[in-house]
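This part of the workshop introduces the protein records we will be handling. To make this concrete, we reproduce a full record directly below.
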Amino acid sequence: MLKHLLTIAGSDSSGGAGIQADLKTFAAHGTFGMSVITAVTAQNTCGVTKVQDIEPEIVEAQIAAVFDDIRVDAVKIGMLSRPETIKTIAACLRKYKPQIIVLDPVMISKSGYPLLQPEACSTLITELLPLATLVTPNLPEAEAISGMKVTKKEEMRPVAEKIIALGAKAVLVKGGHLSDTADDLLFDGQNEKWFAGERIATKNTHGTGCTLSSSLAANLAKGMSLEEAVEASKAYVTEAIAHGIALGSGCGPTHHFVDLYRKAGILE
C-alpha cells in the first residue's frame, strides 16, 4: 500500500532543503508526499537572506485540508519560527493523532541564519517534543534543547537522556559536529545504539538534516523499526552526499535520486 507522508516545514527557494528536499526524499522512497508550508525563505546555496512566516491560521488550514481528506501515515516537522505557529501545529497533531511524527528541530541554517526565534525554543520543547516519535537534533540543537554542553562523544548519552526526559519517545543525536568522529546516537530511554558516521570530503551538503529526517519518516511509515530506519536512512543520505550536486557558488544540495538516476543511466 502506498504510504502518504506529510512535511510541515519551510520552503527553500533553491530547492536543496526544506519542503523541497522533503518531497524529493519522500518520492525517492516510493511514498506520496504532501506539504504544509510554515515559512517562505529567500535562500540559495550561499545562505538565507529573508524569511516570511506564514500566518498560523493558514498553517492550520493547510493541515486540516490534508488530514480531513487524506490518510497520513507519517509526519515530518522541520522549520518552525514562531511560538504561535508551534502551538497551532501541536494542537492540530493532538487532534488528528498521526502515528508517526519525526521532529527535526531546525534552529540555524548552515550559513548561520537564525530560523527559530529564541522565544520559540521553549515552546517547541513543551509543545512538540512530547508528541515526537523521534527527534533528530544535531549537537548545537541538542545543546539548545537540553541546556547541556556537548562537544565530545561521551557527552551525547546524557544529553539524549535529558531530551527523553523532556518527553520525546526517542532521539537521534547527530554527531556531525564532533571533531574526532561523526557517530550518531539513537536512544529511546532504555536502549542506546551507535551508528558510525562517514565523513565525505565535499561542500555539497545543503539540506542533509531535512533529507535524513524525511527519510526516517518514510522508512518508519513503511514499517521499519527505529534501528532499521536509522540504518537505512543514514545509508541513503551518505549516498546522496557522496553524489552531491555542484550547484551555485556555495554549498550545493545532496542528490536525492541517485538510485533512480543510476537505473536510468543518467547519473553524472
